[in-house]
Structures
1.
Amino acid sequence: MKTPSLIVGCALISLFLLAPSSASPQDKQGTVNVDSLAVFSKMSTESDTVQTLTKGTVVRILITVTNEEGNWCGVASQNGSSRIGYVLCSALDQPKDTPVVATQGGSRLQILIGSAHVTAQTSKLQAHRSGDVDPVGQTLAPLPGYSWSSNPKTLVIAIRRGCPYCDASMPFYRRLGEQENSSVLHAHVLVVMPNDEATGSRVLSKGGLEVQAIFGQKLEALNVSGTPTVLLLNSNGRIEHTWVGQLPPQLEKEVINAASE
C-alpha cells in the first residue's frame, strides 16, 4: 500500500510530465535586482502586466518554470501565499543553492522534487540555474558597428517584433529620440533588436521611432532576458541602470533623468 506522501509525490511527478515545460516547485525568497520588474499574468511577456515591482522588493518564489521565452518564477508577496504572477527569474537574486532543472529543448528532462528524481524523454536539453547575476555593474562587449566609447552614455532599448509591451512603449521611446535630438538627453539612444533589418525597420517605422538601430543582435549579449528592457551604459560599456517592462510614468521620468545627467 502506498503511503500518502508517496501518492502526493507521484501525483506531482505526473503533473510535471504532462506540462509543456519543466518545473521545479520550491519556496524561496528572491530580491528584485532591476529598477523596475513587470509581473505577468502568465509565463509570457505577451500576457497582461498585473503589477510592477521596484528594485529591492523581496518576494517568495513558489515555482520556477522554463519555456521557449526563458526561465520564469511564479512569485507571491513576502507575507502572502497566493501567487501574484510570473517574472523572469534573471531579475531576481536568489539563494545559491537553488536546484538545477532542465528545459524543453533537450534529449532528457530531469525533474527534481525534494529528494525524488525522475527522468522523462524530451527532444533537446538545456540545463540552467535559477537566478542570474544582476546586470548592473557588468561591462558589455561592443556591438557590431557600435562602440560604447563613441558617446558619453548610451541608452539601449531592447525590443522585438510581436512584443505588445514594446509596441505600447513606442510613444515613450519616440520621446527619448526627440529629446536626444533636442539635446535634453546626454545619452545616445540605440535600439537593439533580434529581428532582421527588414522586419525591425517596419516595427520602428510603425512606431514613428527615428533613432540608430542594430538588427539581428541576440539580446543575451546585453544580459537581456525579456522585452522591453532599457539599459543605460557609460562610455566603457558598463551598465549603470536597467528598467524592465512597460514603464509607468514615474519610471519613464527616472529614465529621462538618468540619461540627462
2.
Amino acid sequence: MPHHDISPLARVVARVDSLRSGDRDPDVIPTGFRSFDHIVGGGIRGGDLIVLGGDDRVGTSALALAMALRIQEPTLFLTSEMLPERAFERALAMSAKVSLESLRLGVVSEDERVRIAAESVTLRDRAPVIDVLGGGGVDEVVRAVQTTPMPAVVIVDGLEALITSEQALHQSRDETLAFAILALKRLALASHAAVLVLTHLPLLDRSRQDRRPRLTDFGVRGAVGLHADVVLSLYREDLYDGDLGVAGAAELRLLKHRDGALGYVDLFFYEQWMRFEEVL
C-alpha cells in the first residue's frame, strides 16, 4: 500500500511497533553530539523548526557547522557569513584539530598535514552542501531546498540575513523576522526536513546578573517561542568574565521542547580550532 494511503494514526502505530522491534526512527536525525541527542529523544526531527540563539562571538555558527559535519543525513548549510571555501576552511580546522590561522597560512606540521588530508577525504565523501544567502529572503531558502536533492536537515545562518532590501524599506525588523520564523516552520512541514536557524538575541540584557539567554531575549514579537518546536541557547561565561577559570566552558540549553522536557548539556569550546566537544 502506498505510504500516502496510510492514515496518520496508522503510521504512528506502525512507527511504535517498528521502534519496539529495534528499528531506527527515520524521522529522528542524530546531530552527532550524543548528550544533546539524548535529551531531545535521539536527535532533531524532520518537520521541526529548531532555533539556536546566542550572544555575539559565542560560537553558534561553529556549533551549527559542527553538527552539519557530524549529521549522517543529507544536509544543506546556507550561510550569510562566509563563502563556501571559507566554510570548508573552518570545517577542516575543526575536524583536523588544526589552528584556523595555521591552515590559512599553510604553516602546518607534517602530522597536521596528514590529519588535514585524512579529513579532506572524509569531507569529500560526505560533506554538507554549503551555499551563500544572497539577500533573497525566505524565498531564496525555499528555492535552495527545492534544488538540493532531498535534504534531511537545512541550516540557516542566520535569521537576520533573511531581511530583503524591499522589506527593510517597508516593514519593521521584528515584523519581517516574525514572518520569516513562521515561513521557515511552514518550510519544515512542507519539506519534512529539520530546519535549524541561527539568530542573535536582540533583547539580551548583558547587565543582568545571570546572562544565560531566556526565551524572551529572542524578541521578534514572541514568534520564536510560538512557532519553533525546539529553542536552544548557547552560553559561554568567559565572554563576560575571563578571570573565573571557565575559559572554553559552554552550555547548550533547551529553552523550549515541544515534545519533551527541558534541560542542558555541557560543551567545551576550543577557540584555536573553532571546535565544540562534549563534556562527558
3.
Amino acid sequence: MPAVLIVDDLLSIHEMLDAVIQPTGFATAFSTDGEKALVLYKAEKFDLVLADIDMKPMDGITLLKQLKQYDPSCVVIIMTAYASTDSAIQALKFGAFDYLQKPFKVDELIATLKRGMESRKASAERSARSSLPAVKSAEIEQRLIGQSAKAKKLIQQVKKLSSVHTPVLLLGEIGTGKGAVAEVLHATGGSPERPMVRIDCALSSAQSIRDGLLGVDGAGGTWVQQASGGTLLLEHISTLTIPVQKELVSVLRNTGHSFRLICTSHEDLEKLTDEGRFNDELFYRVATLPVVLPPLRERLDDLPILVKHFIRGVTNPYLDVSLVEFTEDAMAQIRAYRWPGNLAELEQVVSKIVSTTEARVITSEQLPLRLRIAEQWPKLEEYIAGQEKQYIDMVLHACSGNKQRAAKVLGISVSRLV
C-alpha cells in the first residue's frame, strides 16, 4: 500500500486528510513540523509527501529542498493558501511535483496523489529499463561529437539526464544541436522503443496546437496521447502565446508525468519570465533541469572531428568520401569564421562541398564566399584569448599580406602588425 507523509502544523488538517485519503488506498503518517518530518522520512522513506508551505520552524519550501537533497526521487506536493500561490509556484523551481490551493476539493486532492504515484512508478520503471551505464555512455559519446571542454561538459550532462524522468529544457542558439540532444536523451532513456512526438511550436498552427497539444479541459490532445510512455519534445516553446502557455500548465499537471518532457528554446526563458513574456508556472515546470548548448565559436577545437563526422554522412558519385580532406588553409578559414548558424551551418557547408567535388583535397577556394571574405571574420578582441598571433596570421594570409586591410579587419592599428 503506498504511504503518504502529511506535514502540517494544524492537527485538524491531519484528521481531515486522514479521513479523506485512507479510504482511497493510501496509508498515512503525520508530522507537525518540517524538522520532524525530515527525520521521519529518512527513517521510513514514504512514497509521497504532502506538506503545507507555511510552517515553523521549518517551512514547506525548506523541507522540500532538504528532502530533494536527501532523495532526488522524492515526490513532494505542496499545500498553500490562495494568498501564497506565488510561493507555491516557486516551489516548482526546487522540484515540487505539484501544489494544491487550500481549501481544495477532495477529488482534486486524490487525483493529485494518484498522479504523484504514477510519476514515482514511471521513474522507477524507467530506471529499471535503462541500459547498462557503459552501453549508454558509449552510445552518447558516439552521437554527440566533440572533445573540447564545452563538448565534454555537455556529454557528461546528457549522461546524467539519460535515465531520469524529470523535464529537461535545452537552451542554445539556433543550430547548436538541441534536437539531436533530445533524440539522444530519448534513445538512451528507459523507453527508447516508445514514440518520441516532436512538435515545432513555431511552425504549428493555432488549431493544430489546440487539437494536438491542449485538447479539452486540460486532458491533452492527440500529440500528448501519442507520447504516453515515451517522449514529448516541444521545440521553440517560447513562441507559444501566453494564453496557450497557461492552458499547457493544466495539461502538464494532468498528464505530464505519463511521458518524458523535453523543451527547447533559443531565447532566455528566465529573462522572458522576469519580463512577463513567459508564464512563470510553465517556466518552473519545464526548466527543472536546464542544459545550455555551447555555440560552435566556443568549441573551435572540435572543428576537425566535426568536419570529418559530417563528411562521413555525405554521398558523392564521383569519389570515395572517406578519402576527402581539407587543406590547412581551408581549415584555418573554417576556424576563423563566426558560424552564426553553428553546427547546422557547418554541416550544410561540408555536405554541399563534399557531395559535388571531384577532387579529394578541398582547398580554401572551394569554400563559400562568406567564409573567404576576411571582413566577415570576428574582430581580434572577439576572438578566443590566447590565440591572437595565430588569428592575426590567418587574417594577414586572407588579406594577401596587406597589413592596412588586415588591421581594418582585426579592428586594431597597423602598428600592432609591424
